[in-house]
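Let us practice reading a record.
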Amino acid sequence: MERPVGLETEYGALCPGAPRTHPVAVATRVVQAYAASSRRGLVGADGAAAPPVRWDYEGEDPLADLRGGRLDRAWAYPSQLTDDPSHPAPSGERGPAPVGEPGGARTRGEEGQGQPVRGTWSSRPRPSAQMATLPAATNLVLSNGARFYVDHAHPEYSSPEVLTPRQAVVWDRAGEVVAQRAMETLVRTGPEPPGPSGAPGQATVLSAKTRQAGGEVVLYKNNVDGKGASYGSHESYLVSREVPFADLAAALVPFLVTRPVYAGAGRVGIGQRSEVPGFQVSQRADYVESVHGLQTTFSRPIVNTRDEPHADAQRFRRLHVINGDANRFDVPVYLKVATTSLVLWLLERQTRLGQGLGRLADLQLVGDPVEEHWAFSHDTSLTHRLRTRGGLMTALDIQGNYLDAVRQALTEDLGGCDAGSVGRQTVEALDMWAEVLAALRRWARDRSGSAASLVEWVAKLELCQALRRRHGCGWEDPRLAALDIQWADLRQGRSVVDRLDAAGRVHRLASAEEVAAAADAPPRGTRAQARGLAVARYPQVVAASWTCLVLDLPGREDLLRLDLPGGVRADDGETLAILQAVGEEVAPGGDWEQAGARCLEEEPPPGRGRIRHGEETGT
């Protein structure tokens, strides 16, 4: 059941007092507001607060394609160039990276000769003058191992790498806490007028009148603005490179097209600009326009082919899922991670056995998958039948077939699907998958049962229908669109979801206290733990990425770069070894083994709750 996964959410952002503020400026305010507290209480040798940790772009490769090869940089759309902040637009074929720019790292050697050294340390040039002028506080690495940054004019929270579906729920919701803290900071403070270059200024205390004029920013966890724009909620999974891309894509298309039946967030409006009044299952479906593709911001595909694993590329592909919704309920987040992980396990298993698609072959769609995606999302009765090789099937039928295929394979391999055979976590995932499909069948039949407490789009639809009955209005009524927006409002106590939650009408898998703790502390089991603890404990850490830590040590000409595990997984012993390696570089001769052990044992910050790591045992 364990598989490395990360979730990414671009938040919608609005400045109520100044709605025409440029979205990049709004997103920048949000990330900068959080920057000052991103290393809470950590001070450097000079006694000053440790600066935010920058993102290290070295090793980024957004143009590699799962289908083989790499898109030429000169042909890339600007939004695809996420690897180099100094070259934001197509720049043709690149030669060797200039010193001080991403890609210009070199191994550490004596007297700067670039001689290779043992271990995972290497050196890299200090940032060039051009790089040093980039705003550090718009791309943060956090103490919980996550990334918080400005991406395509939105503040984005990329969760730390986790291993289990329940961890995915906790650290995805931790992003909501980060967003809330940033908003609360902006209520108290706001940007000074921009300087001559247009860069935002430092925060200052605002009066209530000034806040109303544009200091406050509201963040929304959704995927559409109702006016044609869509922003992503992505998932990244590691999958064995042995699985042929053709099998991966063929198996995933019908699965991802129908997965919103339990993972959709629901949306008021049909069409990219809500041209047709109505309600649909998925926020993202109308913005999917192709079956396969490398792109993420235009002609969005069902199966994204970006092959950037941020891990050992000899062993792993990255499955980058971009057609999912941003969820406020726990069960949809849990299920989309759990079911996708189980399907990937099934594909890896069938590849090892030489079975290809096996039982999944009959689930391949015969019609246009994109049009089927739209049609299914637009049918809240759940009666739309998709054309497959095995005949006409509803979304619930297709998902039930995936569940049955997983169960059959587990039984064949391990002798059953009980906890003694497959482990408690796998049993919980299978049971939740079956329970929600059964609840949706009952709801589709007579609108009864528990579906509204489990499935987000069902809960939203029922509230919208109640409002329509109360006011005798149609789907074109603006109050319904307002309800949809208010659903996603991340201000504490302002969301419709908060009210449902307080009334006990949302099935939660993690407590608010546990989620708050996860906004400060990293998950166990992956390299994110070492990254987060190093960011929180060592002011000498000045940059980081999914794959490395970068240190700036006094008296050294170059920065030092430490590679993190390429397999992503890292137990407490491996985390301790990484922290010890950092400590020995920071202050040679210290007892860094004991210091690192204390980092692993320390309690979360006061008032932030505890993370129930014990819940993550099992297979």
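A brief commentary: Confidence is low (pLDDT under 50) at residues 87-119, 192-214, 603-609, 613-619.
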